Amino acid sequence: MKKLSLYLLSIILLWGCAQGQPENHSFAKLPEPKTGEKVATFAGGCFWAMSEAMSELKGVNKVVAGYAGGIVKNPTYERVCEKNTGHAESVQIYYNPSVISYAQLVEAFFYAHDPTTLNRQGPDEGDDYRSAIFYRTPEEKATIDAVMKKVAATHHYNNPIVTEVTAYKALYPAEVYHQGYYKTHPGSAYIQSVSEPKVMKMRHAVPQLLKPEFAK
Prior knowledge:
With 216 residues, the chain is an alpha+beta fold. The protein has a single domain (39-197), classed as 2-Layer Sandwich (Peptide Methionine Sulfoxide Reductase, Chain A), CATH 3.30.1060. The chain has seven helices and eight strands. Strands 7-6-1-3-2-8 form a six-stranded mixed β-sheet, with helices on one face. Helix 2 runs parallel beside helix 7 (189-205), helix 4 (102-111) crosses helix 5 (138-153) and helix 4 packs across helix 7 (189-205). The longest helix is centred in the C-terminal third of the chain and has 17 residues, at 189-205. The N and C termini lie far apart (35 Å).
């Protein structure tokens, strides 16, 4: 059984997030917020799962997968996977603050991945898969700190939260084929084995924050 488990893990690693086959190398566009919209930026492992999880929240109008937190401008997926850009796979969330608050987004984020593993999410390892929140204002920083304490107090996680909290500088949109990858590749072994459990975990943790079609 142990040999079988190791074999299955090797298959997941081989076809994991860093091994996605490109279908369109052009880059997605980063839209300007619409009137009344606000923007939040998170990193929590492979952006295929995080994009889907955040898009399922009520009040979220759009999610763009991209790269943030690094030192290289306009990086490619292949360059980020080399683990020398400092970037993390990230998501930029466009949301309606009258429907969902920044605090609620942060709370959902903490349940959409494991914020206690340093530079790793499941089979994905490296600083490009780190847990991070990029705040834009001192008020957002205070909100993050408060929500982090709230989540820690629930003892949902056995280990301390190690999420990086840092000021937002830029997000570079990822290639088009990464956008909505979860929905367009439901048969992928990686999506089924790694991404879907993360999305389901968030659904179970914060059902009150989901759009009606996902709150089942």
